[in-house]
Each structure stands twice: as C-alpha cells, then as structure tokens.
Design goal:
By secondary structure, the protein is of the alpha/beta class. It has helices spanning about 10-20, 75-100, 130-140, 170-180, 195-210, 225-235, 260, 270-280, 285-290; strands at about 1-5, 25-30, 40-45, 60-65, 100-110, 150-155, 160, 180-185, 190, 195, 215-220, 225, 240-245.
Length: about 290
C-alpha cells in the first residue's frame, strides 16, 4: 500500500514509520526543518499552516502527529488546535478524495478527562484539558467520514520507549538517574499500564492493513503502581529511587482492552521489565544524561 504518515519525525510516528516502511511505500510529512525517516518519501508540510497542502495519492493515512505545545495554554492554544484538529480535517478531506482503504487516527486516553475512572470506549466524554479537548474534537470530526472509509481511532495510554523526551515516563527515568525524588500520591502513587512504543506501531500496522473501523483503547499488558514502576527503573539503572509522599489521592487508570484484544493478541505486548531495559539503554537517553 501507499501510506501517508504524519508525525513521522516524532517519537511514536518514528516507530510507526520504521515498521510500515518495511512492507509498504510510506510518504512521511515533515516540516521544512526536519529530516525524513529512513526508507520513507518525504512530503514537506507544516501541519499548522493554513491553505492547501500538496499531498500524494495514497491508499491509507496514519495521522500520528500532535502538537508538542499542548502544555502551553493558553499561549499556544491556536497552534495546538491547528495541528490536533485542523490538520485532521484536511487529512480526512484528502482521504475522501483518494478513496482510501483505511484511516488511522492516534488519539489519547486524555479524552476521558476529568473522569479517569470511566475509561471504557463507550463512556461519555467531556475533557477539560487542551490536549484532551483537541483530541476529542479530532475524533468527533472523523466520525462522519466512517460512512465513506474505515477509520480506526487508537486511544493511547502512557506510551514510552527509546528516544522519548519530555513525557511522564522519560521524565521518571531522568529523575531516577539524577537522584531526584519521585512524588507518590497516596502510598504507592497512581496505577497504570505503560505502553511500549513498538506495540503501538504493531497496532497501527494491523489497523491499516485490516481496515479496522472503531475506537480502541491501547495500553500495556501489565498494570502496576508508580512506586513499583519506578523501582523497575532503578533496577535497570543500578540506582535506588528516592520517593516523597503527596497528600493527593492516588488514581487508578484501569484501561479495558477487550475491544483491542478481539483484533490483536495483547498478551504479546512488551512487559515493563523488557521495555524499560531497552529504553534506559538507548543511546539517545544516555547522551542526553551526559550533556
């Protein structure tokens, strides 16, 4: 297949590009100042820019891009909206013109905000954060296009892996490496199921090749507490983590995967011990810790 991929220069999009390009012709949108991933045809495109884009004729589209400025509210809200929502509309329009066989939109469990206890795909959504609201808006504008071509929406939970920066799990690794305290809500901190980046790519590949058309939670195979996960990081780094307690109540992110498990063998997803081993030994993280 000829596949158009956005976000290919990013952490998740890069993993998707590596996997898809092994068996498909991948066209990767990149900003003018960014390099194209290996084995992909670059498509110079600023997803935050107005006007028409010169996009290739393709059989499928994977929209993995998201604005890196989602925490900068309200200063960068317009830019976040342009990338997370506006570009989604343009890509859906292009998909309709191309008569694609499948479209995959990467979303986030942040759409469940503020009710973190109801993470079922059928739950009513009313997110209040900028990231959650724009991801939800992208999902909403995609809905009418399901009558034209299959659309899979993957709601990702706590992704991690080599090369990740400025996110929760990469931040935890750097805090343990630097001997800085990790704050725990309650006795052991939040409970969550970390999701290794290669497993995300595998889900995207199957969604595109098989033409999935539904909303799917995508989380890791094992839930554990923030304390236990941090101790695993310490074991990989050979350092004893430092903790400090918070008076805030701990959240339990129970992400049901029944719908996803009907499509892919989630038992084969990467367990935290293996994923963390690959992550902390990644040269990119080691270089950043020295610089």
């Amino acid at each position: 297949m000829r596949i158009l991929l956005t976000g290919a220069s990013g952490f998740i999009g890069g993993a998707v590009a590596r996997l898809l390009s092994a068996g498909h012709e991948v066209f990767a949108t990149v900003r003018p100042d960014s390099a194209s991933p290996p084995n992909c045809t670059p498509v110079i495109c600023d997803l935050s820019a107005e006007g028409e884009w010169d996009l290739p004729q393709v059989d499928a589209i994977v929209h993995a891009a998201q604005s890196r400025h989602y925490k900068e509210f309200p200063e960068r809200a317009a830019e976040v909206f342009a990338v997370n929502v506006g570009s989604t509309q343009k890509l859906l329009d292009h998909a309709a013109r191309c008569k694609v066989k499948s479209f995959c939109l990467l979303s986030s469990v942040s759409v469940y905000e503020p009710d973190y206890l109801q993470l079922d795909e059928r739950a009513s959504l009313a997110p209040t954060s900028l990231n959650g609201a724009t991801k939800f808006a992208a999902e909403l504008i995609a809905a009418p296009f399901k009558s034209i071509f299959p659309i899979s929406i993957l709601r990702l939970a706590f992704p991690y892996g080599p090369g990740q920066v400025q996110r929760m799990i990469s931040g935890l690794i750097e805090r343990v490496r630097a001997g800085e305290p990790v704050e725990l809500a309650g006795a052991d901190g939040l409970h969550f199921a970390p999701l290794y980046v290669d497993d995300i790519a595998a889900c995207v590949q199957k969604a595109i090749e098989e033409g999935w058309s539904d909303v799917f939670n995508v989380a890791g195979p094992q839930a554990l507490s923030l304390r236990d996960f941090t101790l695993l990081i310490g074991r990989e780094l050979g350092r004893q983590p430092v903790f400090k307690q918070s008076l805030q109540p701990a959240l339990d992110f129970n992400v049901p995967l029944d719908r996803l498990a009907a499509k892919i063998d989630v038992s084969r997803f990467t367990v935290p011990e293996a994923g963390l081993g690959r992550t902390v030994r990644a040269p990119s993280l080691q270089r950043r810790s020295i610089a």
